Amino acid sequence: xxxxxxxxxxxxxxxxxxxxxxxxxxxxxxxxxxxxxxxxxxxxxxxxxxxxxxxxxxxxxxxxxxxxxxxxxxxxxxxxxxxxxxxxxxxxxxxxxxxxxxxxxxxxxxxxxxxxxxxxxxxxxxxxxxxxxxxxxxxxxxxxxxxxxxxxxxxxxxxxxxxxxxxxxxxxxxxxxxxxxxx
Length: 183
What we know:
Blueprint: H1 12-15, E1 26-29, E2 34-40, H2 45-53, E3 59-64, E4 67-72, H3 77-85, E5 90-94, E6 99-105, H4 109-114, E7 131-136, E8 139-147, E9 150-156, H5 160-170, E10 177-180
Parallel strand pairs: 1-10
Antiparallel strand pairs: 1-6, 2-4, 2-5, 3-4, 6-9, 7-8, 8-9
């Protein structure tokens, strides 16, 4: 007996019916991102952080002392995991199937997120390249600022629908649209 498995994104039904042309304020949902968790062994935190700072091809997000998430495009999945696995004093775990990555961008992105997180997202406080674990729409998530008006949110797959719906509700007054990203 042959079994065929079809990958269906957890937000497939939530995005059905949204217009295809994005407004200035827009949520891009990554279809198949690579999300890897990196944990430093005791005493190796500084060395692992140094190696992660030199990493090319992935976006490194700080989660806590000795803990990071590395996100990247699906094309680099194995290559990225292999490079991270070569870091002495680090353990790597693939979280791709258990996490969802959403990018929210636009001139009102910070105002929309201000309704969802209890953190100051002003550029002087939460600079580009900075990330932190926090509650977003009452769900434990990792929020990263990837541009002047661009943020990425990584949430557990089981709560992605709830976070997505809350983001869309908070962005209604700013004509927030959503779609799957092209990559």
